[in-house]
Amino acid sequence: MCCQQFYKTMRTLTILLILTVLSALSNAQNIFSALQLNQTRDYKTVSPKKIVETNTYYSSSGMQTDKNIKTYDQTGMLLLEERYDETGTLKAKLTYTNDSINRLKLTRTFERWTNLGYTKETAFYSYDSTRSLIRSTDKDANGWTMRLAEIVCNDRGLPIELSLFDGHGNSFGKETATYLYDRNRVVTAVVSTDGKIISTDTIKISFTTGSLFPNEKEIYNSHGDLVNWTRKNLNKTETIFEEEYTYDTLGNCTENKIYKVIVKGNGKRKRKIDRIFRKQYTY
Predict the structure, then answer these.
(1) Using an 8 Å Cβ cutoff, are 68 and 50 in contact?
(2) Within a domain: 195
(3) Which residues contact 210 (CB under 8 A, 6 or more apart)?
(4) Structural domain of residue 170, as residue ranges?
(5) DSSP character at residue 267
(6) Dihedral, 28, 33, 39, 45 alpha carbons, nearest 10
(7) Is 142 exposed, middle or buried (0-12, 13-18, 19+ CB in 10 A)?
């Protein structure tokens, strides 16, 4: 492989890695996180003062349980999220400032404690006159810009293009979005700096709305929660998931069990627990 080809390959891998990491951080540095930034998904009905989440994941090597504690303001907007590992050690803390009147997040400070030490960074969110998100700026503990996302929105205020830059203004490429409103879906594409499409994906526009696409393999209950869905795997096979929910008297979900369904050659089905999410509310 020549140097130029190697550089292009590494550049592509770098863009994919950055977008993957930023998606995990959910700080509006990609189309998905920009869409979800100001949507409320922690509760469905009455807003709580606090939620204690206990999340258990099952795998062939055993199970892992972690805990999140979330605190909300009087309007139901998230103020603080503390993340703990299995030993009860605080691993991360997210602190938000909000415009509670317009229901918009203004900043999010992310603190982490790892084996490598302590880190802190803050995301600043900018909006236009229609309250559409147009910019997300990440700065480190010293106030230096680490990343910048410039966002173009359509006439509905939804992001159709997100351009990502490092702290020196160098482009990491961009992501584009095409909306299928009748299906509650958006098709995203990661585009390299030379204009080539690196990858595509299809995601939901809103998680508060059930699937409107009749051919989509998803079934919802009367609360609007997903109870049966099929995931397409990279090897072109499909995995079926079934979910069970328990609700409190106010209609908020207190437990969500997710099962992976194995269909054998003889047609018999076997359910295997995959994840259990529990929530304890303080109102």
Answers:
(1) no
(2) yes
(3) 184, 218, 220, 224, 226
(4) 10-213
(5) S
(6) -130
(7) exposed
Contact 222, 247 (CB under 8 A): no
Contact call for residues 166 and 147 (beta carbons, < 8 A): yes
pLDDT of residue 24: 40
Spatial distance between the Cα atoms of 213 and 14, rounded to a whole number of angstroms: 34
What lies within 8 Å, CB to CB, of 27 at 6+ separation is: 33, 108, 110, 123, 136, 138
Note whether residue 270 is domain-resident. no
**Residue 267 counted as domain residue:** no
DSSP label of 48: P
Q: Decide: 269 and 259 in contact? Cβ < 8 Å.
A: no
Domain annotation covers residue 45: yes
DSSP reduced 3-state for 29: coil
Secondary-structure breakdown of the chain: helix, strand, coil percentages, each rounded to the nearest 5: 10, 55, 35
pLDDT in the model for residue 213: 43
CA distances from 197 to 174, 188, 190, 201, 280 (A): 10, 10, 6, 11, 43
Half-sphere exposure of 256 (CA within 13 A, CB side): 20
Cα dist from 74 to 34, 168, 256, whole Å: 24, 39, 26
Q: Domain tally for the chain?
A: 1
Res. 11: pLDDT tops 90: no
Residue 98 is which amino acid? N
Output the average pLDDT for the chain.
88
pTM: 0.83
d(CA 227, CA 172): 38
- Quickly state the pLDDT bin for 68 (edges 50, 70, 90): very high
